[in-house]
Amino acid sequence: MPPGPLRSVAGLPQPGRCLVMGVVNVTPDSFSDGGLWLEPDAAVEHGLAMVADGADLVDVGGESTRPGAERPPEDEEMRRVLPVVTALASAGVVVSVDTMRAGVARAALGAGAVMVNDVSGGMADPEMLGTVAAARVPFTVMHWRRHSADMQTFARYGDVVTDVVAHLRGRLEAAERAGIDPDRTAVDPGLGFAKTAAHNWRLLAHLDALHALGRPLLLGASRKRFLGQLLADESGERSVNGRDDATVACSALAAAGGAWCLRVHEARGTADAVRVVAAWEGAG
């Protein structure tokens, strides 16, 4: 019988329910909020507000991964991220760094981050897995095929669930070979990364296959285009800022389906949803 859902990663909070990860994009071009939090003071204020709204940890990233995005130079990514990580960590916030670069990960961990969320699962930088192993910190392994500039041209699968699970299994094995403690790893199917709307829905409908990997599951459906497509009307896709209710619905269903953590742009709705799910489950 396959393992059931796991809801804890060593080194991170364990409140007995699904966690909420607030997104702080320190970028000019992220799909949801590019430019809003580019200045460090604004980004820090936003991170603190998300914690006040119920986020358990905050994920700080300086590189947009929206489809078609170009990569910033490494020194620019560091310039964006490090002041924000330092300030939030100093304020007692549990900080994850969202980066594909080992150098940025090392600097952010030195500034107070306690987790590395690498959307490439260690594939974009050959030094990443060794860096995380040496630091002995939690690590998220995401399904990834190519960088954002051309990733959507690789949205082709025999069976998306089977293919994503096989890829994640291989990356978990690579992480363990590099010396990363399996108890410090989580998996993410990478909704929207080299995937169509149909691929995303199929993965969400088959969380059991992802749980069978035996690691906690992080999901990031927040405000993504497949929700805008679902909610389209005669004027076109629902705008990014009109997708928060659909995000909360996904959050409730994912939490009920055993997700360990949900990565969201607006914390309060999902924080409420995961607490409702926990109370519902506890009453049973």
Folded structure, characterized:
- The chain has 284 residues and is α/β, with parallel strands linked by helices.
- An eight-stranded parallel sheet has the order 6-5-4-3-2-1-8-7.
- Helix content is 40%, strand content 12%.
- Helix 1 links the parallel strand 1 and strand 2.
- Helix 1 (40-52) packs across helix 2 (74-90), helix 3 (102-110) runs parallel beside helix 4 (128-135) and helix 9 (244-256) runs parallel beside helix 10 (267-283).
- It contains ten helices and eight strands.
Layout of helices and strands, plus pairs?
Elements lengths: L18 E7 L14 H13 L4 E5 L12 H17 L4 E4 L3 H9 L4 E4 L9 H8 L3 E4 L17 H18 L7 E4 L8 H9 L1 H5 L6 E2 L5 H6 L13 H13 L4 E4 L2 H17 L1
Parallel strand pairs: 1-2, 1-8, 2-3, 3-4, 4-5, 5-6, 7-8
Radius of gyration, CA atoms, in whole angstroms: 17 Å
**Uncertain segments:** none
Shape: globular
DSSP strand tally: 8
Number of helices: 10
Query: Which structural class do the helices and strands define?
Result: alpha/beta
Strand content range: 5-15%
Please write the string of helix (H) and strand (E) elements: EHEHEHEHEHEHHEHHEH
- Summarize model confidence as the mean pLDDT: 92
Distance between the termini: 23 Å
- Estimate the helix proportion, in percent: 40-55%
Largest sheet: 8 strands, parallel
Read across the widest sheet, the strand sequence of neighbours is 6-5-4-3-2-1-8-7
Short description:
With 284 residues, this protein is an alpha/beta fold. Helix content is 40%, strand content 12%. An eight-stranded parallel β-sheet has the order 6-5-4-3-2-1-8-7.
